[in-house]
Write the structure tokens for this entry.
Amino acid sequence: MPLLLWLFALVAQAPPQQAVVETNKGTFVMALLPDKAPNHVAAFIKTARAGGYNGTIFHRVIRYGIIQGGDPLSKDPAKVAQYGTGGMNQLKAEFTDDDYSAGTVAAVLAPGKPDSGGAQFFICVTDQKGLTGHYTIFAKVVEGIEVVQEISAAPANANGLPTERIVITNVTIRDTPPPPVVPFSTEAVAELAQYRAVLTTTKGEITLKVRPDLAPETVRNFLRMAEAGVYDDTLFHRVVKDFVIQTGSPSYRGTPLTQKQAALVHNLQPEFTATPNLPGVVSMARGDDPASATSSFFICTGQCRALDNQYTVFAEVESGLDVVKAIEAVAVNGEAPAEPVKVVSVRVRRAP
């Protein structure tokens, strides 16, 4: 049996597999999709295990569009004029109607030749819906999309060739590991109550004592977001004297969320209680829909009793109320602070 056919049979029977792609800009992980393109996956595995991708470069980048690599000729800096022509015409098309969302990995084709796929591949950095049905999708980036984004933003010449060689140093094929235990998913309410979130702000530290007795699922997700760095580098975007200070919106974050961080920001079911909204009480912000809270939260600085049973109370200020008052005291334009006040970082710890 020819090697590729034998490998194809193995791939069809194998457990789900991933490709760990190491580059000099960082590592990303692709889930292989043999149910979509078995021949392309088999060929990719064969090339990777033979070291065929090691030393190749990403020879074409479109800023926040796509990155392209895998050409064996790109190992040789002297063959730069031929980059993009190597490793082609080995595979017949395996087109599907799947859309080309961010992280999609597909085979490169020669113009007008649907059966010209081979070692070369491209990765969608952002959604590229116009490509649907024109290329063979064989993998999806499931970790490290921020590395792919960084590669796409590298300085490049008019043809998209990066001015610095961005090298694939190694590709490892592995069985897909079991999903990790979701943080803060197994603790009982009494154990969750031992956690504190320490907000380091540009005005000082605020320590929040979480209240899982009031809102256990909100507390779990808040702690996940805090530990993952979702709140780091985020502005207090709303200050209303004798009412609230508010932060936590990704729209006011200094840097974009990573793929893993963004996955933690989602709508939360309301866990409303009649808990009095007094100074130091912390609740999730929301829109008109009671289930529209995500990551933004506010700290009451005054008597906010009109908010009782309307917002999910999930924490209270244990220390640092003076810092809360200092933030409340900043000058504002409307409700926006005139001077930037930032959550520098949030550290999750257990009470001693």
